[in-house]
Amino acid sequence: MRKVAVVGAGMTRFGKYMDKTIKDLGREAVEAAMKDAGVDKSQIEAAMVGNAVAGLITGQEMIKAQVVLREMGFGDIPMVNTENACASSSTAFHLAWLYVASGMYDCVLALGVEKLYHEDKRRSFQAIGSAVDMTMVQELLKATAARGVSAGEKPAAGGGAGAGEKRSMFMDFYAAGAREHMKRYGSTAVQFAKVAVKSHKNASLNPYAQYRETYSVEDILNSPMVAEPLTRLMCSPIGDGAAALVLCSEEKARQLTTKPVWVTASILGTGKDRAPGEPGVTTRMAEKAYKLAGVSPQDVDVVELHDASSPAELMEYEELGLCKLGEGGRLIEEGITEITGKTPVNPSGGLLSKGHPIGATGCAQLTEVFWQLRGQCGDRQVKGGNAKIGLTQNAGGMMRGEPAACTIHILER
Amino acid sequence: MRKVAVVGAGMTRFGKYMDKTIKDLGREAVEAAMKDAGVDKSQIEAAMVGNAVAGLITGQEMIKAQVVLREMGFGDIPMVNTENACASSSTAFHLAWLYVASGMYDCVLALGVEKLYHEDKRRSFQAIGSAVDMTMVQELLKATAARGVSAGEKPAAGGGAGAGEKRSMFMDFYAAGAREHMKRYGSTAVQFAKVAVKSHKNASLNPYAQYRETYSVEDILNSPMVAEPLTRLMCSPIGDGAAALVLCSEEKARQLTTKPVWVTASILGTGKDRAPGEPGVTTRMAEKAYKLAGVSPQDVDVVELHDASSPAELMEYEELGLCKLGEGGRLIEEGITEITGKTPVNPSGGLLSKGHPIGATGCAQLTEVFWQLRGQCGDRQVKGGNAKIGLTQNAGGMMRGEPAACTIHILER
After folding, report:
1. Interchain contact, B61 vs A56, CB within 8 Å
2. B103 and A399 in contact by Cβ < 8 A?
3. Among A91, A120, A287, B246, whose Cα sits 20 to 30 Å from the Cα of A301?
């Protein structure tokens, strides 16, 4: 397998774009990525495009890649539509990496694009809801209806299942996980709130973020309860957006830039029924990635992880080996994952505040880490521009308590 | 890039399965393919799964691969959901090939699975309808409504757009293409009918075919008109089904079988806006495939091609180089593409009669060619079991007169 570099990335600001189509959003991200890479359309040899729910939101169930890219004049290059729920576009990136690593192509585009907003918000949540085995959803819908749960006004999607009008059922999974973590390890709602404070603060420094307001711990805790202990401001919102990256062979990258960022691990895995005590899919895939890249968690300078809820971020610190099991709370208390800390996590603002247009999220995480390693993140830049190793973790869907899909990417300059 | 072999394939009979889920259909095909390959689940290292419209038909918009395969116990192997309309599962096969060819994995599963039947047939056609740019569909819907076209009772889908209750708007594209061919080259409705006679006869010999009745030229011509000159029996039906293949590295294949079938070309391309006189995407991709495999059209012993309508088959003879432009009619008149002919085409019965559950079709074509090259097709076996080179052509979606996606695969034993 050949070395593969990222040479450019671009994205839209995440947000609510009722008047824009996936074609508009995708085009903006792709043009920005090509400009950043210094390539034109004639150099792109293939395109992998991740999207999860455009069929249900926009009616474009099929050939989304072609609809988004066709008019941009890429000619008859291979285009593949990939889907792995919230990990749809990191899956697209993985396949773009594979095309280049295999030796088949020298310059490949990866794009994630999503519209979640719909005039009828129930439709947004119902769309997100199909990221689980639908037979499971039917049971959960019944259980939720029986409890009569409702939530605040800010729509809290979080890559989750859609039941009620104003929230996502996936938050029930996250809330249950958070309660279990509190019970077992003594983590607290205040710690979960501190994660959210950090995310919103980081997003306030990120012009691509959907929500740029800052909040105090009290603000977070006092926002409407979604599912104990998750408040609204601990949950990722719904949103629209796109992100794209250009991947190249080493030779091509050397022609294009003096600042290539290498993909030293591209791992995709699937959730399974675990044996008792067996670690989760994030841990299992992260271990493969560290081994492949020849780095340890302590070597990582910047992380973008899948904080569909703020307790999830704290647990993922542990799952990624940034600390021992049960120590996630300590990391946030000690400021280790702040932009100024030893291992900055989600300097972009993460899913929580930068936003989570689900099929765009994976490529957006990779874009942020790429920009961080290039030292071009302005006010939210980590390590004074000297970060060398970055990691992304992106999870999608849910089957019996474990994400259906999980990707880990390690990028190095 | 390494040599890649197919070592096993399996499929369900295509048909109408109101009581079966995509999980049921997928499992049946995968178990059959693994049995055929002589591998168990522990040997499968990744799975690529093509599906087009389960979101609209069953509500399972996301993580279809995981839903179908999870309970079969494959563990945490990479799974990717791919979509390219009617070419969804040949795209999955292409990516499975890429995984093996790259050296990343030694044994990968490709699966195509689809349910098109829905209690409300309009929903089936509407689902199929999203295989075009939806802005285009809106215009076509208006045009069709203005003409008030209706069709016969057998639902004619043909990988096309859904407008009316009983037919697919894609047939308007095919009908227009057929009329143009008649005008330019003198092909006739009788020739189109002869293609359909052949398909239905072949399907009558195929236990996996959805429609196994045989018809005369008169039967075909006298069946209800769908869109001049297409009658109902010249159009592929809607259906449910699944097909799967196991792909291996050379070393692994040698361990498993004495009869590997090699993938000597795996080409995926996208439709584009053509220059005047420029050949279509099928021709362009076929030329790449022939060059890569080092064979000519005349070397090919068996073809499975995308006969969403019978005139399309005749035109694809030409596009694939089996004859010169305008000579498609001669090929069917002279029996050259019969099972007993020099270049048998669609011995399975093709989309027209074997059926066309769109996301399953690509893998089903590859399964048929694999079985033909292994000499295990019984009554429909071509070349007395001595076929050495086979080709599949699978097209998906439509954008401004050209398929959105097109794959060409060449298999050799």
Report:
1. yes
2. no
3. A91
Task: Give the residue among A128, A348, A119, A155 at the shortest CA–CA distance from A236.
Answer: A155
Q: What are phi and psi of B375, to 5 degrees?
A: 75, 30
What percentage of chain A reaches a pLDDT higher than 70?
Answer: 92
Residue type, B219: D
The residue among B35, B36, B62, B37 whose CA lies nearest residue B49 is B62
Nearest to B341 by CA among B330, B325, B356, B357: B330
pLDDT at A163 exceeding the cut of 50: no
Q: For A84, name the nearest residue in chain B, comparing CA atoms only.
A: B63
- What number of C-beta contacts closer than 8 Å exist between A and B? 195
Rounded CA separation B66/A398 (Å): 9
A41, A298 Cβ separation under 8 angstroms = no
DSSP B13: P
**Packed helices A310-319 and A170-185: angle between N→C axes, nearest 10 degrees:** 60
Residue entry with tokens 């773009």: A96
Q: Do B66 and A271 touch (CB under 8 A)?
A: yes
Contact between B396 and A127 using a beta-carbon 8 Å cutoff? no
CA distance B363 to B49: 10
pLDDT-derived band at B135 (thresholds 50, 70, 90) equals low
Q: What is the pLDDT of residues A56-86, one digit of tens each?
A: 999 899 999 999 998 899 999 999 999 999 9
* Residue A317 backbone phi and psi in degrees, to 5: -55, -45
The three-class DSSP label of residue B342 is: coil
Token reading at A80: 């593949």
What tokens appear for A277 in the block?
A: 């005590």
Could you give phi then psi for residue B103, rounded to 5 degrees? 95, 0
Phi first, then psi, for residue B113 (nearest 5°) are: -145, 140
Q: Is the pLDDT of residue B208 over 70?
A: yes
| Cα B306 from Cα A130, distance rounded (Å) | 31
State how far the Cα of A39 lies from the Cα of A255, in Å rounded to an integer: 11
* Alpha-carbon gap, residue B335 to A322, rounded angstroms: 68
Distance of alpha carbon B253 from alpha carbon B297, whole angstroms? 27
Chain B residues near residue A78 by CB distance under 8 angstroms: 94, 268-270
Which residues on A lie below 8 Å from B66 (Cβ)? 133, 270-271, 397, 399, 404-405
pLDDT in tens, B267-291: 999 999 898 889 999 999 999 999 9
CB atoms within 10 A of CB A207: 10
B253-B259-B265-B270 Cα dihedral, nearest 10 degrees: -90
Average pLDDT, integer, range B179-207: 98
Q: Are A244 and A51 in contact (CB under 8 A)?
A: no
Q: What is the ipTM of this complex?
A: 0.94
- C-alpha distance from residue B142 to each of B124, B135, B169, B179, B320 (Å): 19, 11, 11, 22, 34
Q: HEC string of B260-304? A: CEEEEEEEEEECCCCCCCCCCHHHHHHHHHHHHHCCCHHHCCEEE
Contact B66 A270 (CB under 8 A): yes
Distance from the B201 Cα atom to the nearest Cα atom in chain A, whole angstroms: 32
Report the residue of A69, A76, A102, A402 to disrupt the B interface, i.e. the one with the largest count of B CBs within 10 Å: A76
Which are the catalytic amino acids of A? 86, 356
What value does the CA radius of gyration of chain A take, rounded to a whole number of Å? 19
How many other β-carbons are positioned within 10 Å of the β-carbon of residue A145? 11
- The number of residues making up chain B comes to 413
B66 min Cα distance to partner chain A (Å): 6
Bridge partners (DSSP) of residue A391 are A303, A410
H helices present in B4-63, as ranges: 22-37, 54-58
Return the beta strands (E) in B160-260 as ranges.
225-227, 230-231, 241-249
